[in-house]
Design a protein that fits this description.
Layout (H helix, E strand, L loop, with lengths): L1 E7 L3 E8 L1 H16 L14 H7 L2 H24 L8 E7 L15 E8 L4 E2 L3 H10 L8 H14 L2 E5 L8 E10 L2 E2 L5 E7 L9 H4 L8 E7 L13 E15 L5 H6 L7 H35 L1 E2 L3 H18 L7 H27 L6 H11 L3 H24 L2
Antiparallel strand pairs: 1-2, 2-4, 3-4, 5-12, 6-11, 7-8, 7-9, 7-11, 10-11
Helix pairs in contact: 1-3, 4-8, 5-8, 8-10, 9-10, 11-12
């Protein structure tokens, strides 16, 4: 077999594959024999008819096509194995020349038995940057995550507030009360989408509404309606409301006086578990916050490692993979906003991010392959059992999590 290769952009190749008369004849003979075995002639038991009669009953064109199909399949497989290629799309095949009839004399002919071209798209190669150096540099920027006493105090206050007792009152609302309300909000007389709430409950002075909202409800009793207008800050999280006057109509459904439990050892024991003292609570909170901060900082550093590794790596991903990445982003946008457009303009705006995401995937794949960081079948199965997850549904998901964990654990080890 003779193969000529022409490299094209976007991980594509054009192959010109040439089989000798003898090489293609082997495929012809196999297809011919297989076809003969399926022929049934009247007056003869299957397989006993003379070869000449059987031969005249065969569809030579169908046999030839079968031989070509098998020859192309086998030779492309061998070529991909030799070059360590993985096809990401069906090859486009075109037969250029062939010798459909065979004899012993024909086998001595030096002309090719089969010549075909194959336009192929392969899984792209990735030239990785110096990932150990990149990891070492990123880890130098890792911040310590100390836990302050203020953070512990805030957590304890949250625990205290969550266990407050409430008594319904008929007096005016004051700061620290819990109130139950129904809210209507408008701008220029038009209702704000999502701006209506029924039986919402919050602590006066601790809500996340606009500045001044809680103060406007001080002194209001159950059953009363309070109407007022507030101006949204220019940096308000909802951009379409920034700087606008918002009118509220609030119906007070209930006012509740709250009594907070005293923070002492008895409170600690009431939480259950191993808590015996307030110091036990503080220790547990400190450890929890520290673990959370460490996880967030590690996540930040890992993201920085990957971002820099993508910048310093090279690849030429095929168009079909880029478009698939764009498809995935389009679907994510549609889930968040069902009314979002899906035309070519919308796709083009997502293409840059899609390429970045695809490149990150390719870099991680290449690194896992080079350093043998892919999880084993046993590891994935064990994690599925530990999480009580269905294998068919979650295998790929768990595989990805374990591979990601292996990669960044390796990067941290190798940079030390």
């Amino acid at each position: 077999m003779n193969v000529k290769t022409k490299k094209l952009p976007a991980s594509q190749y054009t192959l010109i594959v040439e089989l000798s008369q003898e090489e293609f004849h082997a495929y012809w003979e196999t297809s011919y024999t297989r076809a003969m075995g399926s022929v049934e002639l009247k007056g003869f038991r299957k397989g006993t008819a003379p070869r000449e009669l059987v031969d005249s009953a065969l569809n030579k064109e169908a046999i030839f096509q079968d031989a070509v199909d098998h020859a192309v399949r086998d030779t492309l497989h061998n070529i991909s194995e030799d070059n360590h290629w993985g096809f990401v799309d069906s090859p486009k095949i075109e037969v250029k020349s062939s010798a459909p009839l065979f004899s012993k004399e024909k086998l001595k002919d030096k002309s090719p038995g089969l010549v075909y071209t194959a336009d192929i798209t392969i899984f792209p190669e990735v030239k990785l940057g110096d990932y150990k150096k990149i990891a070492a540099q990123a880890l130098k920027e890792k911040n310590e995550a100390p836990v302050s006493n203020e953070e512990i105090d805030q957590a304890i206050k949250w625990l205290q507030s969550s266990r407050a007792t409430e008594v319904r009152m008929l007096r005016e609302t004051k700061k620290g009360d819990a109130i139950e309300v129904s809210i209507e909000s408008t701008v220029d007389g038009n209702p704000i989408p999502g701006g209506s709430l029924e039986y919402d409950k919050f602590v006066v002075g601790e809500s996340k509404f606009l500045p001044g909202f809680d103060d406007a409800l001080l002194g209001v009793k159950e059953g009363e309606i309070k109407k007022f207008t507030l101006t949204a800050p220019t940096d308000y999280w909802q951009k379409d409301l920034q700087g606008k006057d918002i009118s509220f109509s609030v119906v007070v459904k209930g006012v509740f006086e709250r009594t907070l439990p005293e923070i002492n050892d008895a409170f600690a024991e009431s939480l259950g578990g191993t808590f015996k003292t307030v110091e036990d609570i503080k220790k547990n909170i400190r450890e929890g916050i520290a673990t959370e901060k460490e996880a967030k900082e590690s996540e930040r550093i890992h993201a920085k490692m990957l971002e820099e590794l993508v910048k310093q790596s090279e690849s030429d991903p095929p168009t079909i993979m880029i478009e698939k990445s764009v498809d995935n982003l389009v679907q994510e946008v549609k889930q968040l906003n069902p009314d979002a457009k899906e035309d070519e303009t919308a796709r083009e705006t997502l293409r840059g991010k899609a390429k970045e995401r695809l490149m990150a995937h390719l870099v991680l794949h290449a690194l896992a392959e080079r350093e043998s960081l892919n999880p084993s079948e046993e590891e994935v199965s064990e994690e599925l059992r530990r999480r009580s997850l269905d294998r068919d549904t979650y295998y790929d998901y768990i595989y990805g999590i374990l591979r990601h964990r292996n990669i960044f654990a390796f990067l941290e080890r190798s940079s030390q």
